[in-house]
Every structure is written in C-alpha cells, then in structure tokens.
Amino acid sequence: MFNFTALPPLSLYIHVPWCVRKCPYCDFNSHKSPQEIPEQAYVDALIRDLEQEVPLIWGRSVQSIFIGGGTPSLLSAEAYDRLFSAIRALLPLQHNAEITLEANPGTVEAGRFEAYRNIGINRLSIGIQSFDNEALKALGRIHDSQQAIAAVETARQAGFDNFNLDLMFGLPGQDEAKARHDVETAIALNPAHISYYQLTIEPNTLFYSQPPVLPEDDPIYDWQLANQARLAAAGYQQYETSAYARKGKQCRHNLNYWQFGDYIGIGAGAHGKISSASPQQIERRVKQKQPQTYLDTAGSDNCLLERSWVDEKEVGFEFMLNAMRLLDGVPTPLFQQHTGVPISLIKKPLAEAEQLGLIEHDIHRLRPTEKGQRYLNTLIEQFLGA
Q1: For the chain, which ranges sit under pLDDT 70?
Q2: 264 near 283, Cβ under 8 Å?
Q3: Residue 290 C-beta-side C-alpha neighbours within 13 Å
Q4: Other CB atoms closer than 10 Å to residue 232's CB: what's the count?
C-alpha cells in the first residue's frame, strides 16, 4: 500500500503538436502544421483540458511550466498570454516559477522572443542540434547555422539570460573535428544550459525505415568524453546523462521529472503523473495524440487516451529509472517521500547493483557510480520487477 505523508512537487507540461516539417529522427508527437494553425481553438482546448485536471491536484502549487512540442514557438505571445491568465486563475503558480518555451531557430519565430519574455516566459530551450549546415540538412532541420546563431543573439537581446541549447552528436557525416566545432560554437554563445546527446534511431521515424549512415560507436564515445571535458572546463557541470549547466542553472522542470515529482500534462499527446493522498495512489494520464481529436474532446473523458495506476511492484523501478540519470543521484529519503513506499521494497536489487559496482548508497544518498553512469541500462534493469 502507498503511504504519502507529503505529496511530491508539482509541475505543468503543455504540448504544442505542430511543426513546419517533421524531422526524420523525431519520435515525439509532432505533426506537420496546417497552413493556418487553429491557435485560438487550441488555447481554448488547453484551458478546458486544464480545468478537467484541476480537481486531481486541488490546492497544490505549480513550481515550473514547460511548453514542449512540436514547435511551441509557432504560437503567438498573445496566445500564451491568454493561456497563462487562465493558468493563474486555476492554479497557485509559485512566484519564482520556471517557465520554459521550446523554440526553433528561424527569423519569424525568433522575432517573437521579446514578446514571450514580456508575458512571463523566463527560459528558452532552443533546438539548434548542430552548427554544421550539411548535418542540419541531413537531420531535416529548416534552419541553417547562421539562423541558429542569430536566434541565440535575438534571445539575449530580448532579455533572456537563462536559455538552453540543444545539441546532438553522432550525426550523419560527422567526425571528431565537426563534433568539437559544434561544442565550441555553443560554448562561445554562452548559454546557461546545454543539452548534449547522441542521435539515436527510434522506431516510428523516417530514419528507422531509411537509416542514415552514422559514425561508428567507438569514436563517438571518444568524442563524447573529450567534449564533456571541454564543457566542464568551460564551466558547464554535467548533472544528468545529457544535461550540462552553469552553477544554479539546472533545468528545474526536468529535475522534477528525474526526482519522480508530479506533473500535469495538457495538450495533444501530453503525459501526466499525479500522486494523491486520498485515495493513496499514483495515476498516469495520456491525452489524445491527433490534434483534431484533441480539439474535439478536450475537457471531456474522451480526451483521455490512456489512464493507468502505478503498481507497488513498478514504483521502485520507475523511481530508479529517473533518479539514476542524475550524476549525483538523490537523497535517500526522497525515495519514500516521492513513491509512498519504503526503500526496503528495493533492498535486494540495491544490494545486487552495489555488488556489481553500479551504485553507491547509504542512509543519506543514492547515486550511480561512474560505471553505473556508463552502463545505465544495466543499472536500471536491476530494478525491473523489484
């Protein structure tokens, strides 16, 4: 039985499902945008969706908002202003809440940055992926290197001092020099945060059915180590598998995910996880994925594509799946606080993972070892069926 003495922190995720063009590597719920995005109707749907979620989290304050996609920067600042007014009327939003918007480089979207800043968005996550034009073409991106750099400069001029750059490695045609150039260019732009991760080929993507030629794994790993060292030397501390930040600039929203916090999910295909004290349970909710279906059903029970409850046998695995992505792990008491079950539930796999040299733990902290970080999948598998 679950036994929550206090509920985990709460965040809000908002999904915008449209992109100018679907990238061949993307497995997120994104769809080619119509000639005219139904902006007003979609904001109306998001508000109805949120109204339906509020009874599940009544009285709890929201510490962060993340607007992901798709390409959220396709919607105007006016649309978000109306949405934020509704959010503030429905939810207690912490005065210092982190509010992140994902944005793709491009002159039309970048020109909106100042308006976004003025309505309360205080963090951007800019999807650069690479500063190499050939790599960008291979990835199906609609921007070039100059537009990427211009977007960052526009963000800074608009008053954003807290922004993330998304960067990928192991790209088609990439070698060590090109991978290093991407990292050096990102560092020179002086973002607060860099997400640096390897291109992986996911099912249900164009790259899965038509795989590109990628560099070999061994040299990719060598580049990764060298570039991680370069990021560290430039003041970017790695705090998660693929996240690097200047001091105090870790992404609070993502930290809540990795620490097994709660989150409401609104928008087409959005996921949510809500713990409750009465009844004592953890519920997962997924909204309709197709934009038109979502528009038609938002605010009704038909908007729920999936609804499930986390089992006691699953909760230890789910917690560790997230928490072990953090290089410094989590405080040991957080396990019981955020899962509602005692840590003794995973006593056996903890001991086995420790024996394999994958994890360190005591009454104060649970953390992956350096070996556990490298063989993260092996570490997580220890807790399957715990």
Answers
A1: 107-110, 386
A2: no
A3: 5
A4: 12
Helix 77-90 to helix 39-53 angle (10° resolution) is 20
User: Would you state the pLDDT for residue 109?
Assistant: 62
In the structure encoding, which two tokens stand for residue 165, read together?
């750059």
pLDDT of residue 154: 92
Phi, psi of 232, deg, nearest 5 = -60, -45
- CA 59 from centre of chain: 25
Note whether 262 and 273 are within 8 A (CB): yes
Instruction: Answer whether 312's CB lies under 8 Å from 342's CB.
Output: no
Q: Where are the alpha helices (DSSP H) in the chain?
A: 39-53, 77-90, 107-110, 113-118, 133-138, 145-157, 176-188, 206-209, 217-233, 252-258, 291-297, 312-323, 333-339, 347-355, 370-374, 376-381
Long-range CB contact pairs, 231-238, < 8 A, 24+ = 231/183, 231/187, 231/194, 231/196, 234/187, 236/187, 236/193, 236/194, 238/327
Q: Which of 36, 26, 11 is CA-nearest to residue 291?
A: 36
At residue 41, the pLDDT reads 98
CA distance 177 to 215: 13
pLDDT tens column, 100-127: 999 998 745 667 899 999 999 999 999 9
Query: What pLDDT is recorded for position 385?
Result: 74
CA–CA distance, 373 with 325 (Å, rounded to integer) = 8
* C-alpha distance from residue 364 to each of 205, 345, 380 (Å): 42, 17, 20
- Look up the pTM and report it: 0.96
CB 238 within 8 A of CB 244: yes
| Cα Rg of the chain (Å, integer) | 21
